[in-house]
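Before the break, one more example. Copy the sequence into your notebook; we will annotate it together after we see the structure.
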Amino acid sequence: MRLIMLARNPGLYSHKRLVEAAAQRGHSLDVVNTLHVHMNITSNKPVLRYGGKALPLYDAVIPRIGASVTHYGLAVLRQFEMQGVFPLNESVAIGRSRDKLRALQLLARAGIGLPVTAFAHGPRKAEDVIREVGGAPVVIKLLEGTQGMGVILAETDASAKSIIEAFSAANVNILVQEYIQEAEGSDVRALVVGDRVVGAMRRVGKTGEFRSNLHRGGTAEDAHITAEEESTAVRAASVLGLNVAGVDLLRSQRGPMVIEVNSSPGLNGIERATNADLAGEIIAFIETAATHGQTATKGAKG
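Here is what the structure looks like once it is written out:
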C-alpha cells in the first residue's frame, strides 16, 4: 500500500515508529509537512500539491495534525477524503475531539462516565459554576489546552472564583470539573485501535503535581485495565467517530471516567510502558480498513 502521513515533525518518535512499522509490513509511507501542502479547491478533480508537484493518489492518509494547526490541517485532510483516500481518523471526528466542550456533550449524551463538568460565560456565574461541580477543590481547564497545559487545580472556592474571573476578563473559555480525589494524581491512557484497546499505561504525576501528563514530568507503567475500563475507552472513541484514539480515564469510586479523548495520541510513552508494537497495530488496522473500503466515521452523530 502507498500511505501518506500529515506531520510537521518527521523526527518525533511516534512518526518514526509509524514509518518503520509500515516498512516492516511492506508499505511505503511518505511524510509531508501539513502546512506545506496546498490545494485547488475549485477543481472538479481534487488535487493536492507539495513541493511544486501534484501528490499521487494514496491508499490511506494518517493525520498527525498538531492542535495549533487544526483548522488548516483538517482542510488538507478533507481534500484527501474528497479524493477517496482512506483517512485513519476522519476530519469530522478529529474536529469533534479537538472541541473539548462538544466532545464532552457527545460523551455525556451517550452515557459515558465523566467528572461533573460545568460551563458558563461571564464572571458573574463563577459561584454558580463552582457550586454546580460540588465546590472546591475543582479543576479548571482551558478549552484549547493540550498536554496538561491550561489545566489548573483550585483548592478553595475563593481561588477558583479568582481564576474563573481572570479567564473571563480575558475572554477565554474554560471548563470547570470536579476533582476526583481518589485518583491521587494518576490516570490511565488507553490506546484504542478499531474496536479494541491494544495497550494501556498508568500515568502518575510527579510529587506535588496533580497532572499526570508525561510532558509535565509524570511517569508511566504498563496498566492492566478492567473490562469496564476497556468498554468505556472503546465506546468513547466510537462516540466521537475515531478509529484510533488515546482515551484518558480516571479511576473513581463511581467507575471509570473519561477526561479526554486524543485523536493523535503519542506512542513514545505507551510503547515503552507496554513494550508492545502499537505502531504495527495501527498499520495493521489500516491494511484491513482501507482495503475493505471501511468508512472512518463509526456511526457518530453530532
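The first strand starts at residue 2 and ends at 6. The domain at 182-291 is CATH 3.30.470.20 (D-amino Acid Aminotransferase; Chain A, domain 1). Try to locate both features in your own notes.
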